[in-house]
Amino acid sequence: MHWEFWTKKLDEEDLIENGVYEESNGTSRTAGMNGNGPSRLVDPLEDPLPGVGTYEDFNTIDWVREKSKDRDRHREITNKSRQSTVALLHSISDAFSGWLLMLLVGLMSGALAGGIDISAHWMTDVKGGLCLRGFWFNHEHCCWLSNETTFQERDRCPQWQSWAELITGKSEGPLAYIMNYLMYIFWALMFSFLAVILVRAFAPYACGSGIPEIKTILSGFIIRGYLGKWTLIIKTITLVLAVSSGLSLGKEGPLVHVACCCANILCHLFTKYRKNEAKRREVLSAAAAVGVSVAFGAPIGGVLFSLEEVSYYFPLKTLWRSFFAALVAAFTLRSINPFGNSRLVLFYVEFHTPWHLVELAPFILLGIFGGLWGALFIKANIAWCRLRKTTCLGHYPVIEVLVVAALTALLAYPNSYTRMSGSELISELFNDCSLLDSSQLCGYKQPANTSDTGVDNSLADRPAGPGLYTALWQLALALVFKMMITVITFGMKVPSGLFIPSMAVGAIAGRLLGVGMEQLAYYNHDSVIFKGWCSQGADCITPGLYAMVGAAACLGGVTRMTVSLVVIMFELTGGLEYIVPLMAATMTSKWVADAFGREGIYEAHIRLNGYPFLEPKEEFEHSSLAVDVMRPRRMDPALAVLTQEGMTVGEVESLVESTHFSGFPVVVSSESQRLVGFVLRRDLLISIDNARKRQDGIVSASQVVFTEHTPLLPPDAPPPLRLRCIMDLSPFTVTDHTPMDITVDIFRKLGLRQCLVTHNGRLLGIITKKDILKHMAQMANRDPDSILFN
After folding, report:
1. 40, 84, 2: which is closest to 611 by C-alpha?
2. In angstroms, rounded to a whole number, what is the distance separating the alpha carbons of residues 249 and 381?
3. For a disulfide at 325, which of 106, 331, 566, 715, Cβ 3.0-4.6 Å?
4. Which of 644, 690, 636, 626 is nearest to 661 (CA)?
C-alpha cells in the first residue's frame, strides 16, 4: 500500500522512541585474571547504553523480553517504595500514569475528531455555495439563523447562495446548473489534489485507512514514523480534504489511525511507555477503541472493536483503560457537539415500530447480499491494488487521485443521492418518514384523511407516489455507482476509510428492499404472510430499519466484524429491540463471505503488503514438523553461530557483516553445538562499538566472552570483552519433532520473534516468524516470497 517504504524520512522523535535498555541488576561486574594480575574490566552494559534492547525498523519486537523488562522495573519500584516516602510517591505516580495517559489520549482524540467533523461538514457544503452572513457557516447553520426558512424547504434561505447565484445571479435554468456542476468538479479536484500532494510531500504514511498497519504494529511489528507527529498533522488535514472532495471514502478508519498517533506521541511523556514496546502497544490497543468511539459515537462498540478486530494482546487491564479512554473521548466529542444536534453522530435515528418474525427472512436476505458484496469487494479491490503495485499506475499517485476524483464528481453530481456526502446519504436512508417529511424517499400518495396517520407522527403504510419512484431508480443507480467506485478508491494515496462507503452500499440495498416489503404489505395485507400482524392502515414495515440492517450486513461482509459491529449499530440507533435482526444479518453476512475466503479486507491488505502478521483466527491445518520449517535446510550452508569463548572481536564483526540475520545463537563450541543462549545483532554491534570507545585495550584481537567467568589468557593478550549481559540465557526452544501447529500456537500466544530447534540439547536450526508465514503461504499455494519483512 505504501510505495515510500524505501524512501521515507524518519521522524526524529521516532528514532529514539524505543528508549534505553534498563539493566535490572545494578551490581558491578568484575572480570577475572588475564595474566597481568587482577584488573576491573568495563562491562559495556554496566551503564545503560542508548540503543541496546531496542529494535531496528521493519522488525518484530520480542514480547517476552519486553514483559520481563517491565516486571523487573515494577519489582524494583515496589521494593524501593518500602524504603522512603519519596519512593512511595513515585510508585503511586507510576501506577496512576496509565490512567492519566488514557485521559490525555481521550481528550486529544475527541478534540481532533470534533475539529475534523466540523471542518469536513463546512468544506463539503462549500462545493455547493457560500453563506453571505459569514463564510465560516455551513449550509445548515447558515439557514438556522434565517427567519425566511420554511419547514418544507428548510435547506433554502436567502443567506445561503449557490455558486451560480454568486457568479451569474441566477438560481434556476441550464446556465445555473452548468455553473454549479463545474464549481462542484473544481472544488472536488482542488481538495483531492491538496490531499494527495500533502501526503506525498510530508507524510507518506498518512494515506489509506491505517487499520491494516495498526493491526500489524499491535502484533509487535515496528514501522517507524507511522505513528509520528508529522503523520498525525498531515492525516488530520488531508482527511478533511479527502472526505470533502466527495470521493467514495469515510473518515472512520483513519480516525483509528489518528487516535493511535495521539497515543504514541503522548507515550513519550511517560518513561514506562516510552522505553517499553509491549507497554506502548497496550496503550495503542486502547487508542484503537478511542478511534471508533469518536468515529461512531459508540464507546462500548469501540472497546469491542479493539478487542475483536485489531488487538493482538489485550489483557484485562487494557479492557478497563480502553473503556475509560473511550468514555473520555465520547464525552469530549459530545461537549464540542460538532453536528449541533446533541448527538455524537450525524445519522442518529429512532424507530418506533417493532419488527415481526416474518421480517427475519428479508433481514437474512440482506445478510446474504452483504456477504456476497463483501467477498466480491475484497477480491476486486485486492486485484486493483495489486495492479497498482505491479504496473506503472503506482508511479503516478497524484494523477490517479485526480482522475478518480474527476470521474466521481462528474458521475455523482447529476444524482442527488451520490452528490451528498456518505454520512448524509446514510442519514437520509435510515430516516423514518413522518407526516411533515419533505424528502423524496417519503414521496408517498397522501392519505385522504388524517385518521390514517399512525402514532408518534409516523405514517401508516401508503402506496408509493411519483416522488418515491423517482427516488428508487436514483438509488438503484447510486448503488451501482457506489459499488464500482469504492473498489478503485480504497487504497489510493489519500486517507480513505471503508466503513461509510460499505454502510452506504448496504443502506441503499436495504432501503430498496424495505420499500418493496412495505408496498407488498400494503397491497397484500390479507395474504397469509401479513395476516394477523399487518392490518390495513397500520404502520407495519419500517424501510429505515431495513437500511440499517443492510448497512450492518455489508460492513460485516467486508470487515468480518460481528459482535462489535452489532453493538456499534445499536449504539448508533439507540434501539435495543433491533439487536436480533442485526445479529441475524451480520452472522449470515460473515458465513456467506467466509465461504468465499476467510480473510477480511484488512487481513487481505496486510498480506498484500507482505507484513509479518500471524493471524490469530487462522487455523494451522497441516501435519508438518519443526524440522521441516527450520533453517538451515538440507542444501543450505551451516547455521551462523557464536561460541561462548574463543572468538575474537574481529571474527564476530566479520560474521555479523557477512550475514543479514537479526540474531545469533551462542553455543559451547563449534564441535558440541550445545546451546547456551541467543544474542541480537543490534545489541551485539552497539556493545562492541561502545566497548571500543569506552574500554581501554579492546581491539580486533580481543576475545569475546559469553561465560560468567573470564578464561585464563596469555600475559600479552589484550583484555577480553564480556558480553554475557546482552545474551538471552533462556531462549525458547522446541525439539525437531515438535508439530508445527504447536509451534505456531507458541509464536501466537507468546509473541515470539524466533525459536531455536534442538535435538538432545544440540542446536539444529532456527525458526522465525517469517519462516512460519512463508511455510503457511506455501501450504496455501501462495507465493512465499510475498512475505517481505521479519
Report:
1. 2
2. 13
3. 106
4. 636
**Pairwise CA distance, residues 84 & 203, whole Å:** 47
d(CA 438, CA 421): 19
> What span, in angstroms and rounded, lies between the C-alpha atoms of 62 and 60?
7
CA–CA gap between residue 185 and residue 191 (Å, rounded): 10
Compute the radius of gyration of the chain from its Cα atoms. Answer: 31
DSSP 497: B
Q: Cα separation of 112 and 331, whole Å?
A: 13
Distance of alpha carbon 545 from alpha carbon 538, whole angstroms: 17
State how far the Cα of 682 lies from the Cα of 730, in Å rounded to an integer.
Answer: 19
Question: Which residues lie below 8 Å from residue 514, measured CB to CB, with a gap of 6+?
Answer: 541, 542, 543, 544, 545, 546, 547
* Backbone dihedral angles phi then psi of residue 644, each to the nearest 5 degrees: -70, -20
How many angstroms separate the CA atoms of 405 and 413, rounded? 12
CA atoms within 13 A on the CB side of 605: 26
Helices (H), 391-498: 397-412, 416-419, 422-430, 466-489
Which residues sit opposite 130 in a β-bridge?
161
Cα separation, 702 vs 723, whole angstroms = 12
Threshold 0.85, pTM exceeds: yes
What are 208's strand-pairing partners? 495
Distance CA 102, CA 7 (A): 34
| DSSP 8-state assignment for residue 499 | H
- Residue-wise pLDDT for 586-605, tens only, equals 999 999 999 998 889 999 99
Beta strands in 586-684 (DSSP E): 642-643, 647-648, 663-667, 675-680
Domains of the chain, start order: 104-336 (1.10.3080.10), 357-444+459-608 (1.10.3080.10), 626-780 (3.10.580.20)
Q: Could you tell me if 77 and 48 are in contact, meaning their C-beta atoms sit under 8 angstroms apart? A: no
Residue-wise pLDDT for 35-56, tens only, equals: 333 333 444 444 556 677 778 8
